[in-house]
């Protein structure tokens, strides 16, 4: 009997469902702990409801020209229920809770479609080129999903030697084995006759809707906010608040300063760093890690050697049996010989590289050139270490703190990784010169102010949409009571 991989399909489906509703399915401040009716064990029995006439395709909510079906509400409601069951073990059975979570699902969908509704009202549209770009992007995602699924299942069930990255690499037998299992699981998980192409078609439709909504939202923001600017008073308020927050955070955890500097430099953050804590070191690092996999016997042998050392010591102190002491020496020598060979196979190449790197430095090769030669591609040209309690670099900080500015260490072995560290200098502590980052400060203040104003406008539109929506309760009243 073939083993089943339904969990993999289920997880993938859940992930794509979450993407489809893009952040609108998790209610703010709505947890079972805060919802007594949802968690009550003495909940009243659900009232009789007509479920026989329920139709998933029925129009349940109208928002302008947008029609929300009962099936969409049901899927959103079921997602809530599954989360409550999975994470909190809560069953929704009483009328009040069913209505509450069903209303939440409806409002989520209204919020999801709101940008399209508001865009139609304001005359904001996507161009033909933008629509085509979305479709091309989704086509690429679906192709990647199709390839990943088929190649994974071909390896698991079709006999493929590995998980390929191209379906064309599969034999007919491997492809047939993958498709048979995928379609079997999908038909079991969804409905009889449901195939991979049905699944991908639905995901494609969902992804296009999500990306269109996102693109429309961006255009709405651009049309609404225009060329946003911020006044000097707002900049001053932002600067004072941000400086105080950074000072508190970085003094408590200096490594947070390093992370903020790196995030800003990489573009992951638009907030400039305004303050540096005490004890930060600017260094350059040569780092060489073993490429081989560490053999578990290395640690096993070390443990046995330590036990032999302890036993030998006790015997020596107490005039123990000479025969046993000789046996211990022999056992120890064998273990050491084996371990030396294992450690050399594991770390010998890295040791040879770090020694060559050190020799190059001693021959006055610039540190930057040796870094480029030996460090992994993309390694930082310069790194910040906090001299006290650095969680990322640990002992390396202690070595760096002992160096004179401009000097470098001998090779250092820490947790099976070799380092050579050079101290560039100590980062001056205190407030960063504001004049040097004035433009970045104003840009960040303007971005935060614009975000706040846009979020307020967006919430206002969501409230408008909730009021404008026409609900057909008879179309969705059965949701929560369906078998």
| Helical content band | 55-70%
* Biggest β-sheet strands, sense, barrel: 4 strands, antiparallel
Residue-averaged pLDDT:
88
| Global Rg | 32 Å
> Low-confidence parts, pLDDT < 50 over ≥5 residues?
1-11, 13-46
Tell me the fraction of residues in β-strands, as a range: 5-15%
Number of helices: 15
- N-C termini distance: 31 Å
Q: Give the neighbour order of strands across the main sheet.
A: 5-4-7-6
Question: Could you tell me the number of beta strands?
Answer: 9
Structural category is: alpha+beta
Order of helices and strands: HHEEHHHHHHHEEHHHEHEEEHEH
Categorize the overall geometry. extended
Question: What is shown here, in short?
Answer:
Helix content is 60%, strand content 8%.
Please tell me about this protein's structure.
The chain is an alpha+beta fold and 483 residues long. Helix content is 60%, strand content 8%. It has 15 helices and 9 strands. The protein has a 4-stranded antiparallel sheet with strand order 5-4-7-6, sandwiched between helices. A hairpin with a 2-residue loop joins strand 1 (59-63) and strand 2 (66-69). Helix 3 (70-88) packs across helix 4 (95-122). The longest helix has 41 residues, at 322-362. It is extended, with a radius of gyration of 32 Å. Residues 1-11 and 13-46 have low confidence and may be disordered.
Key attributes of the depicted protein:
extended; 9 strands; 483 residues; 3-stranded antiparallel sheet; alpha+beta
How does the SSE layout of this entry go?
Layout: H1 6-21, H2 36-39, E1 59-63, E2 66-69, H3 70-88, H4 95-122, H5 128-157, H6 172-189, H7 196-225, H8 232-252, H9 254-266, E3 275-276, E4 280-288, H10 297-317, H11 322-362, H12 367-374, E5 383-386, H13 395-401, E6 412-414, E7 417-426, E8 430-431, H14 438-468, E9 470-471, H15 473-476
Antiparallel strand pairs: 1-2, 1-9, 3-8, 4-5, 4-7, 6-7
């Amino acid at each position: 009997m073939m083993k089943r991989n339904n969990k993999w399909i289920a997880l993938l489906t859940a992930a794509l469902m979450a993407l489809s509703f893009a952040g609108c399915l998790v209610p703010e401040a709505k947890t079972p702990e805060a919802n007594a009716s949802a968690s009550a064990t003495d909940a009243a029995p659900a009232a009789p409801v007509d479920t026989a006439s329920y139709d998933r395709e029925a129009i349940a909510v109208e928002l302008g020209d947008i029609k929300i079906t009962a099936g969409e509400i049901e899927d959103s409601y079921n997602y809530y229920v599954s989360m409550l069951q999975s994470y909190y073990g809560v069953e929704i059975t009483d009328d009040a809770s069913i209505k509450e979570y069903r209303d939440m699902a409806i409002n989520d969908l209204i919020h999801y479609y709101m940008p399209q509704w508001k865009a139609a009202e304001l005359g904001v549209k996507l161009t033909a080129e933008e629509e085509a770009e979305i479709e091309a992007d989704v086509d690429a995602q679906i192709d990647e999903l199709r390839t990943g699924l088929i190649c994974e299942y071909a390896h698991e069930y079709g006999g493929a030697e590995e998980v390929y990255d191209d379906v064309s690499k599969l034999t007919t037998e491997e492809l047939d084995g993958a498709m048979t299992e995928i379609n079997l699981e999908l038909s079991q998980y969804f409905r009889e006759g449901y195939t991979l192409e049905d699944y991908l078609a639905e995901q494609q439709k969902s992804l296009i809707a999500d990306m269109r909504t996102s693109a429309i939202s961006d255009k709405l923001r651009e049309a609404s906010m225009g060329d946003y600017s911020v006044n000097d008073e707002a900049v001053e308020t932002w600067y004072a608040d941000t400086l105080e927050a950074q000072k508190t955070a970085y003094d408590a955890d200096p490594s947070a300063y390093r992370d903020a500097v790196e995030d800003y430099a990489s573009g992951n953050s638009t907030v400039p760093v305004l303050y540096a804590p005490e004890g930060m070191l600017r260094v350059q690092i040569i780092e060489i890690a073993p490429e081989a996999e560490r053999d578990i016997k290395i640690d096993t042998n070390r443990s046995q050697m330590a036990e032999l050392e302890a036993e030998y010591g006790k015997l020596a102190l107490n005039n123990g049996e000479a025969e046993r002491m000789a046996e211990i020496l022999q056992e120890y020598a064998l273990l050491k010989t084996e371990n030396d060979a294992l450690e050399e196979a594991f770390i010998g190449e890295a040791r040879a590289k770090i020694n060559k790197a050190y020799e190059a430095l001693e021959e006055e090769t610039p540190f930057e050139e040796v870094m480029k030669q030996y460090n992994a591609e993309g390694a930082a040209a310069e790194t910040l270490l906090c001299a006290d309690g650095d969680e990322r670099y640990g002992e390396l900080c202690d070595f760096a703190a002992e160096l004179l500015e401009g000097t470098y260490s001998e090779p250092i072995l820490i947790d099976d990784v070799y380092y050579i560290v050079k101290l560039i200098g100590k980062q001056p502590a205190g407030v960063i010169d504001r004049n040097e980052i004035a433009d970045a400060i104003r840009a960040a203040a303007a971005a935060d102010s614009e975000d706040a104003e846009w979020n307020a406008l967006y919430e206002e539109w969501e409230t408008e949409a909730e009021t404008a929506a026409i609900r057909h309760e008879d179309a969705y009243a059965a949701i929560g009571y369906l078998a």
